[in-house]
């Protein structure tokens, strides 16, 4: 079975600082990995996804994530945080043979201080 | 705006009642997924429909059911409601059921409160 672990339910950074949100996955078959963002009172928006090929994936709003198979990780980073980045971030995994459903982590709430 | 619409936005009802949540997928999308987001369970997959047929079931209670109509909109029916059913219910859609790499586009959700 697949699973996702997001380390740190809350992360706080100053505006302009590096954002690092951690995600580790467990899967016995090659995973497809996603990061979604949820702003208050809104639905989930896809930030980026890894399917195959290049392990460094660039997404919207300056975010990127690197797939590291040896570490079973897919951490999300952004070089310089902006106040508008404050939201909840979800890492998710899906795999062949398990239909197309997404298995989500528990989420990380990012706070950005001025 | 993802192009996925959900109605109603908010729903307040009493225990034991039955409600129907509606979802219209993005134009051209054939798959519809339902997810439940609650404080204690997080985001959980409930059920998926592809072109009118049930394709996958997740942690969906027997009191809950869904269907996808010929025009591809979907309804999630929740009956004999309990306090613990209070949650945010999301609908998502994707172009096909072509595999796990498909991007799912999420609607704004329906917030259900059971009193």
Question: Strand share of the residues of chain B?
Answer: over 45%
User: What series of H and E elements makes up the topology of chain A?
Assistant: EEEEEEEEEEEE
Beta-strand percentage of chain A? over 45%
The share of residues in helices of chain A is: under 10%
**Alpha carbon gyration radius of chain A:** 14 Å
Counted beta strands of chain B: 11
Q: Are there runs of chain B of 5+ residues with pLDDT below 50, and where?
A: none
Ends apart, CA distance between termini of chain B: 31 Å
Helix share of residues of chain B?
under 10%
Largest interface, by Cβ-Cβ below 8 angstroms: which chains and how many residues each?
Answer: A-B, 25 and 28 residues
**Helix and strand pattern of chain B:** EEEEEEEEEEE
How many β strands of chain A by DSSP? 12
Note the main sheet of chain A: 6 strands, mixed
Low-confidence stretches of chain A at least 5 residues in length (pLDDT < 50)?
none
Instruction: List the total number of helices of chain B.
Output: 0
Oligomer: heterodimer
In round numbers, the mean pLDDT of chain B is 93
Class inferred from helices and paired strands of chain A: mainly beta
Overall body shape of chain A: globular
């Amino acid at each position: 079975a697949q699973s996702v672990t997001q380390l740190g339910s809350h992360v706080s950074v100053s505006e302009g600082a590096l954002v690092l949100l951690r995600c580790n996955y467990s899967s016995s078959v090659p995973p497809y990995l996603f990061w979604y963002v949820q702003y208050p009172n809104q639905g989930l928006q896809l930030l980026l996804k890894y399917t195959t090929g290049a392990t460094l994936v660039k997404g919207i709003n300056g975010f990127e994530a690197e797939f590291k198979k040896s570490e079973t990780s897919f951490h999300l980073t952004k070089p310089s945080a902006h106040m508008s980045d404050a939201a909840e971030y979800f890492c998710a995994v899906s795999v062949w043979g398990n239909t197309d459903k997404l298995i989500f982590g528990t989420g990380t709430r990012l706070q950005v201080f001025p | 705006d993802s192009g996925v619409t959900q109605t109603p936005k908010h729903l307040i009802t009493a225990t034991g009642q039955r409600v129907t949540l509606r979802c219209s997928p993005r134009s051209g999308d054939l798959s519809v997924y339902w997810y439940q987001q609650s404080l204690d369970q997080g985001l959980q997959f409930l059920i998926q429909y592809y072109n009118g047929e049930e394709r996958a079931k997740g942690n969906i209670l027997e009191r809950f059911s869904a269907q996808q109509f010929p025009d591809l909109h979907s309804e999630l029916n929740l009956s004999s409601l309990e306090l613990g059913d209070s949650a945010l219910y999301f609908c998502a859609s994707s172009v096909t059921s072509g595999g796990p790499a498909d991007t799912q586009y999420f609607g704004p959700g329906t917030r259900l409160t059971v009193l």
